[in-house]
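#lab-general

N.A. 3:47 PM
ok so I finally got the sequence cleaned up, no stray characters, all 283 residues accounted for. can someone with queue access submit it? mine expired

B.Y. 3:52 PM
send it over

N.A. 3:53 PM
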Amino acid sequence: MEFVKGHGTQNDFIVLLDAKAELDLTPARVRALCDRRRGLGADGVLRVVPTRLSGEVHDQEKAAEWFMDYRNADGSTAEMCGNGARVFSQVLVDRGLVAGESFTLATRGGPREVRVVNGEFAVDMGAPHARDELAPVDVAVGGLHLRAVPVWFPNPHAVAFVDSLDALGVVLPQPTVSQAEVFPDGANFEFAVVHGENHVEFRVHERGAGETASCGTGACAVAWAYRQLADAAGVASGPVTVDVPGGRLIATPLSGGRWELVGPAVMVAEGTINDSWWDVSYE
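B.Y. 4:20 PM
back already:
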C-alpha cells in the first residue's frame, strides 16, 4: 500500500492513494495507521478516491474528479478538514492528478474549490451554519467553566474566548458540554484569545483526535466567531490572521457568507507500507 505523509500547520495526515476504490479502510486500520508507536502516526487519514467510484458523494462527480475521504485518528469520519484539504491538494498536484491553478474537491461537506496561491493553497470553506435559536453552550475544561458559541463549518464547533491560553494547562483534556444534545455527533472545541484587530490565536481539541496543533475548520469557526464580536464593536472587516500552535492561517470572508482559508501544505515522506504489517487484521 502506497502512502504519502504531510502536514498543514503541523496538523498531520497519512494520504492513501486508492485510484480504483478498492481499499477496505476500516476504523481499526485507521487507528493503527495513526498510532504514533505502532503505525505511521497522524491526526487523520485522507483517502484519494475518484468521486465517480464513491457511493457517498457520487452526486458531486460533475463538480470534482477526486473525493477527499477523511477519517479522524479514532477511525470516525468527518464532514471536512481544512488543513487536510491542503495536504490532499498538494498530493494531487504532485502526482499530476489535477491541472491548472484551481480545481474542486469532493468532500462530505460538499464540493470545495481550491486555488494555488504563492505556493500555498486557498480553500473555499463554504458558509458556516449557526443555529440562531441556540444560545451559547456551557463548556468545562481543565477546571474552567466557559461559555462557547456553537457553529458548524460544516464540522461541529464550540468556540470560547478566554483571557489566556496558558490557563488551559499543558495538555488540553477532553472538554465536556452541558447541552450534549446540541452536538449529538460530538464537536471540536476551540479556545481563543484576541490579540488585536483581525488577529486571534487558539488551541483546539478535535473530535476523534484530541488536542492537535491546528484545525482548519476550527480556524474558520474562530474567525467567524471573532467577526461577530468585531462587527458589534465596529471593527472593519477583512482577512483574519489566525495563529495556532503549528503556525499561521489566514481566514478571509467572501461573498454569500463563505470563508476562504489560506495556508501551507508540507510534504514529509512517501513510501509503501510493509505487506506483513498492512495485512494484519486490527480489531
